[in-house]
Amino acid sequence: MLTDSQVAELRMLLQADRDRILSAAQDASSFSRDRDRTRIGRDSVDESAEEALYGTKLRLADRDSQTLNAIEMALVRLASGNLGECEECEEPIAFARLRARPMSRLCIECQEDQEDRS
Ligand SMILES: [Zn+2]
Q: 99 alpha carbon to ligand 1 midpoint, in Å?
């Protein structure tokens, strides 16, 4: 079981990761909006806003969106108190491992087993 301060630390790490991904997507979408606005011959604000939204979704459709999902799931597991438990063998995951990768769902042994199989 994780202590309260370990839970607080992991929550902070996860939220910082989530904020970083979201604000990176936000920056990228305002960049493409500015670029659209200066393009000659463009007159529809709605169109460029739509494009920016599409761009954000496109960017979030890749690896970041998977990471974001993993973060959300980790936060849910953290809230329900089973984040520090391996999904394979149900043994506790070392806190050092969780701190390095708060989204870890497997202990180091099971992770290595899985990597061997694939
Ligand atoms: Zn395990």
A: 17
Residue 89 CA to ligand 1 center (angstroms) comes to 4
Least confident of 2-11, 60-69, 109-118: 60-69
Q: How far, in Å, CA of 108 to CA of 29, rounded?
A: 37
What are the φ and ψ backbone dihedral angles of 85, each rounded to 5 degrees? -115, 135
Q: What is the pLDDT of residue 1?
A: 79
Provide the 3-class DSSP secondary structure of residue 40.
coil
| Helix, strand, coil percentages for the chain (3-state, nearest 5) | 70, 0, 25
Report all structural domains of the chain as residue ranges with CATH numbers, in order of start.
4-117 (1.20.120.910)
